[in-house]
Amino acid sequence: MNKIYAFSGLGVDKRVYDKIDFGTLDVEFIDWIQPLGNENLENYALRISEKVTHENPILIGLSFGGMLSVEISKIIKVKKIILIASAKNKFELPFAFKLSGKLKLNQLLPNSILKHQNFILNWLFGIESNEEKQLLKSILQDTDSKFLKWAINEIVNWKNEIYPENCIHIHGSQDRIIPIKNVKAEFVIENGGHFMTVNKAEEIEKIIWNLIKK
After folding, report:
1. What pLDDT, on the 0 to 100 scale, is given for residue 11?
2. What is the Cα–Cα distance from 162 to 68, expressed in whole angstroms?
3. Which of 49, 71, 76, 145 is most exposed, with the fewest beta carbons within 10 Å of its own?
4. Which is nearest to 86 in space by CA: 166, 152, 185?
């Protein structure tokens, strides 16, 4: 059976995969590690790839975890990368991200916006139900603010131009954080937003199972 390593998104943890039934699949959820000082994403990927101990694994990456998976695939050989609500390279990120990186606007973001569930984050993530709001609130409270700041900086300054091999991209048609107009996706989840592993879990689950069987 294929070994699967799953990476969660920025500011979230493995709880965002709770609604997806992986059944008998051999899935290991990788927890974030603390970045070192001004460490870049490439070096961070090198360190966290030490947790990927099986040969030729399948990587599943959600959002920022997808970008990290792409960087890991440059270091070790992987059988497949499944990206969810993510980007394969810098060209799929919105222009506002790149502008923020150049002008260092991301460094002005207050922790109050990043660490606390609010109407802005609800809108960006496509969250509607009280259950989803409570989940995001709980996850954000458990997330290190220094890690959030570091990760956002790495996203807006991501330099990758390579289109990774063996990559399958699942994206939501209503993703407000990484708009689908910039993305080449093999699977589009109608009305899916950036939180679709929670509120569109069944659709994503079916796609993942079909991809793993191949």
Report:
1. 65
2. 13
3. 145
4. 185
